[in-house]
């Protein structure tokens, strides 16, 4: 992992380059990509991969939790309008339905951003038919 450069522009291209330098290798291996990032939040895609599936061909909950947590990192960047340090304080997830054979889209939004804490929500949907897979809420601490 390397240091974040807060002067980089908050764009999809730089967001994906940042992810290649700040996240642990196992997280990078999931293949998540930022598809959109702006002042209201971020959208990420988790490509379907059989290696992420449990018995029955369902994408495992651990991969979905990682997607929610990673999406919230980009929501924190959006809230700060820069690539800044942050850490998860809490996360609550509700699994709505199984996801099979499709990419998963994560849309994270800012609920409230204060000086030190950020509250956000993430909705996971299937890419092909936009059915809700899981919802999550998280609190992040924005670090100096």
Automatic annotation (TrEMBL):
One of its GO terms (molecular function) is fatty acyl-CoA hydrolase activity. Belongs to the thioesterase PaaI family. Residues 57-131 form the Thioesterase domain. The keyword Chaperone does not apply. Keywords: Hydrolase. SUPFAM superfamilies: Thioesterase/thiol ester dehydrase-isomerase (SSF54637). It comes from Gammaproteobacteria bacterium LSUCC0057. This is PaaI family thioesterase. The keyword Protein transport does not apply. Pfam families: 4HBT. InterPro entries: ACOT13, HotDog_dom_sf, PAAI_dom, Thioestr_dom. Gene3D superfamilies: Hotdog Thioesterase.
């Amino acid at each position: 992992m390397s240091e974040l450069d807060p002067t980089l522009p908050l764009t999809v291209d730089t967001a994906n380059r940042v992810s290649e330098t700040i996240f642990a290798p196992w997280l990078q291996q999931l293949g998540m990509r930022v598809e959109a990032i702006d002042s209201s939040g971020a959208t990420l895609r988790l490509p379907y991969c059989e290696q992420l599936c449990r018995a029955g061909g369902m994408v495992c909950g651990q991969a979905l939790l990682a997607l929610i947590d990673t999406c919230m990192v980009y929501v924190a960047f959006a809230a700060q309008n820069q690539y800044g340090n942050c850490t998860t304080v809490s996360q609550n997830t509700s699994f709505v339905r199984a996801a099979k054979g499709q990419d998963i889209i994560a849309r994270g939004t800012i609920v409230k951003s204060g000086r030190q804490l950020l509250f956000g929500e993430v909705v996971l949907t299937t890419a092909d038919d936009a059915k809700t897979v899981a919802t999550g809420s998280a609190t992040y601490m924005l670090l100096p």
